[in-house]
Design goal:
- The structure is a single chain.
- With 299 residues, the chain is mainly beta.
- It folds into two domains: 33 residues; 252 residues, no CATH class.
- The chain has three helices and 18 strands.
Length: 299
C-alpha cells in the first residue's frame, strides 16, 4: 500500500473516532439536564385529593363525606278532623338541634411511630355550637286510611332508608297534639382549606383555614294504619299509607370564614387536621396535611 493511501485511511479512522466521541459527550450532557416534568409535577395527596404543589390552586384542603353528626329532633303532630271522609288532617312541625361542628389542627415535631421524641400541640376552633337549632316549618301530612287511624312516625334519610325504627304515636283524636323527641343519625360533609406561612421557630407558623359543613338530609315518615297490629289483626285486614316530610333539607349548608390557628410547636412541624362535633369530640380520624414549610411553598 502506498504512503498516500495509508495517510488517507488513517485520517478516515481519526475522523470516525472523533465523531463517536462527540456523540457520547452530547448524550452525557443531555442526561445532566433536569426534566421539565420533574420540575413542575411535584404532587402531594391530602385526604385522597391530588394537588400540584407548583399551582396557586393547590391550597391544602380536606373533604370528608361521612361525618357522623346526629341531630335531636323535637316534633309535634297536630291532628284534627278524624272523620272517615276525606280522612284525618294532620300537621307536622318542630325543631332539629345539630351536634355542632369544629376543627382541630394538630402540630407535631416528628411523625408518630418514629423513635424520636414527639412534641405535640393541638388547637381546637369551635365553628357551630352543640344544639344549634333548625326550625322545621309546619307541614301538612297528606294521606290516611280514613276514619280514626293509628299513627306511627319514622325518620328516614334522603334516599328513603330508615335511620330509626317506627315510633308509635297513638290513634287520631280530634284536636290532639302529639309531642315527641328523638335522637337521629345524620351524615354530613365537612371541608377545610388551609393557608400556611411563617414556619420559623419563633413565634411559630401562621395558619388560617376556611371550613364548610353540608348535611345529607333527613325526613320524617308519617305512617297510618287502620290496625295497631302491624302484621294484621285476627279479623281485620291492615291498610298502610305513609307520607314523607322534610326535617333537614338535603344540602343544608354553612360556610365559616377564615379562622386563625393560634399555637404550634415551633420550627417546621408536621400538621394534621381533624373534624369535631360541638362538644369537642372527634367525628373523623386525623388527616395529614404535610410539613409546614412544604405547605407554605405550595401556596
Amino acid at each position: 500500500m502506498k504512503k498516500s493511501q495509508i495517510r488517507t485511511v488513517g485520517l478516515a479512522v481519526f475522523l470516525l473516532l472523533l465523531g463517536v466521541s462527540c456523540q457520547d459527550s452530547l448524550q452525557f450532557n443531555d442526561s445532566k439536564k433536569p426534566s421539565n416534568l420533574a420540575e413542575t409535577s411535584q404532587t402531594s395527596t391530602v385526604s385522597g385529593t391530588s394537588t400540584t404543589s407548583s399551582s396557586s390552586s393547590s391550597l391544602p384542603h380536606t373533604n370528608i363525606t361521612e361525618l357522623d353528626l346526629p341531630v335531636q329532633v323535637a316534633y309535634e303532630l297536630s291532628t284534627y278532623d278524624c272523620s272517615n271522609n276525606p280522612g284525618p288532617k294532620i300537621t307536622f312541625s318542630g325543631l332539629a338541634a345539630t351536634a355542632g361542628f369544629g376543627v382541630r389542627t394538630i402540630f407535631r415535631n416528628n411523625m408518630v411511630g418514629t423513635h424520636e421524641h414527639v412534641e405535640e400541640s393541638a388547637v381546637d376552633v369551635s365553628l357551630q355550637p352543640n344544639g344549634s337549632q333548625i326550625v322545621i316549618p309546619k307541614q301538612p301530612v297528606l294521606g290516611g286510611v280514613g276514619g280514626n287511624p293509628f299513627i306511627w312516625i319514622q325518620f328516614v334519610n334522603e334516599q328513603g332508608q330508615a335511620v330509626t325504627g317506627e315510633i308509635f304515636i297513638g290513634r287520631c283524636v280530634q284536636g290532639y297534639t302529639f309531642k315527641g323527641a328523638q335522637s337521629v343519625a345524620e351524615n354530613a360533609q365537612g371541608t377545610t382549606k388551609y393557608t400556611v406561612s411563617g414556619c420559623e421557630n419563633s413565634p411559630g407558623p401562621n395558619i388560617t383555614f376556611e371550613a364548610g359543613l353540608s348535611m345529607a338530609g333527613l325526613n320524617a315518615r308519617i305512617i297510618f294504619r287502620n290496625n295497631d297490629n302491624k302484621v294484621g289483626g285476627p279479623h281485620e285486614a291492615t291498610a298502610t299509607i305513609s307520607s314523607d316530610l322534610s326535617v333537614i333539607p338535603s344540602g343544608s349548608s354553612w360556610t365559616f370564614p377564615k379562622q386563625p390557628v393560634l399555637g404550634g410547636v415551633g420550627g417546621n412541624p408536621w400538621i394534621w387536621t381533624q373534624f369535631l362535633n360541638g362538644s369537642g369530640a372527634p367525628v373523623s380520624g386525623e388527616i395529614l396535611l404535610g410539613r409546614c414549610e412544604q405547605l407554605s411553598k405550595a401556596l
